[in-house]
Amino acid sequence: MSIPRSGRQLRIASGGYEAVIASVGASLRTLQKDGRDLVVPFEADEVRPGYRGATLAPWPNRIVDGRYVFAGVEHQLPLTEPSRGQALHGLLCWTEFDDRLVLDDRIVLAAVIEPQSGYPFRIEVEVEYRLDADGLAQTVTARNLGTDAAPWGTGPHPYLVAGPERSVDEWTLTLPASEVLTVTPDRLSPVAVEPVSAHPEWDFRAPRPIGDVFIDHAFTGLTRAGGVAEVRLTAPGGTGVAMTWDERCPWVQVHTADNPGVDGIHRIGLAVEPMTCPPDAFTSGVDLVVLAPGAEHAASWRIRAL
After folding, report:
1. H or E element: which one contains 281?
2. Cα(252)–Cα(271) distance, rounded to whole angstroms?
3. Cα first-last separation, the chain
4. 125 contacts 90 by C-beta, under 8 angstroms
5. Is residue 158 within 8 Å of 302, Cβ to Cβ?
6. Could you write out the three-class secondary structure of 211-256?
7. What is the pLDDT of residues 25-37, one digit of tens each?
8. Which of the 8 DSSP states describes residue 66?
9. pTM (2 d.p.)
10. Side-by-side strand order, sheet with 216-222
């Protein structure tokens, strides 16, 4: 039997939730609660559209020009976002992950980033998806198998869906972030962290409709309850979805999925991407995880229906 384009299909279910994980990129292909989509899905026999549902590692977001210096050595990564000249979303998005554990409500997948040009480090990446009555939890664990310290960052890339109105314009967003990382308009390269009060179009600390606002920015200064930050997205009909994460992700990227002129995908979901570090952290060093030889680092997040 041929393998679908998105890889092997691993289905888990529990507490009224059902998810399908595609083995290529350890990607969240579908997530439903009682038959309602909580993320924008894609077909099994489809090349995953962009980074929809992918696991991002060993860095999330962009490294400007693909260049960085680590431990005094300059590295050049492939420019995987050619239109902007950036290295985007890590090295595992198109990697086939192996099964480590497959249960009815839980799977664990693993892959190894082998030393290569631009990232000469060996990192084992383990991705766990677990379903229960509180939704879908994903945990990404990195282990440094090499002999040198390595830079590390991670995050997910789901496009959340609040309800049947398939346009973010109609949804209400609550984003408890007091600061936003401004970017250049052409390449989305980081400029400066500024208060959202100086950019009211991106201030969603009080819930309000997204409307026609364009968002493709990283946010920080997160307000947390019990150490947990929560983004909430609700639809006019009363349905919704929430995403939560702890202090291991001090940043979150939010994107309104703008694809002007492309029918069927323009603003059909809201990307919410908790991140262990901001864009271009390999260069800035801000919140960058440095994995010592033999060390490991884990980060997790959860999606649940409202």
Report:
1. helix 281-284
2. 10
3. 38
4. no
5. no
6. CCCCCEEEEEEECCECCEEEEEEECCCCCEEEEEECCCCCEEEEEC
7. 999 999 999 999 9
8. T
9. 0.97
10. 159-160, 270-275, 251-255, 216-222, 177-183, 190-195
